[in-house]
Amino acid sequence: MLLLLTRPEPDAQRTAEALRAKGHDVIAAPLLRIEPLADAAIGGGPWAAILITSANAAHAVAAHPRGAHLRPLPVLAVGRRSAEAAAAAGFTDVTSAEGNADDLARLVAEKFKPTAAPLLHLTGEHRAGDLAGELRAKGFAVEMKIIYRAVAAARLPASTAGALASGIDGVLHYSHRTAEAYVTTARAAGLLASALKPVQFCLSKQVAQPLAEAGAADVRVAPRPDEAALIALVGSA
User: What is the reported pTM?
Assistant: First the structure.
């Protein structure tokens, strides 16, 4: 299949290689740019653990001046990819919830008591769901620190616009914001109909929402919110 991959770097190239290894042709067209916030004020703790809901948070903390100070802490990650990114950033005690934010909240409740030290949630400016609010409702203290921002593209890359005009087979979407950016930039380029015609492969129902609302006819959602399941979904098409 000829596929368009909309996720940001540095993950886009890694995913493109995995798809090419399956025999697909891939056009990498990141529609978000991740900017670590090196000046983010994290504070001194103490904390019981770090919570991350995106690999982007792990990449950002690796580049943060206080990253070395945080590495001895246990990390609870939303899924396998974010856990792998935390391990690559130098954290040695990493546990994956293997799911979504609700699964991560359950994992926290299994491993910690509300009387423990506060949890440090490292996140981006835009978040899906309210993990901190859910945990606070269970009695946990949570300190949420914004450590990166995701900046949406203002327009489609020229190579992407050309591919959509010529016709592609499928588009992979990893986040609600990339799906929104795909719709917004395609509409601005006058290519919305072409952009919605391919199969839209989505990591979750929440990711699929902007595409369904825009009128995409063939929106498919991975059975689990992880990359392996999404790539398998592409393979089954």
Answer: 0.75
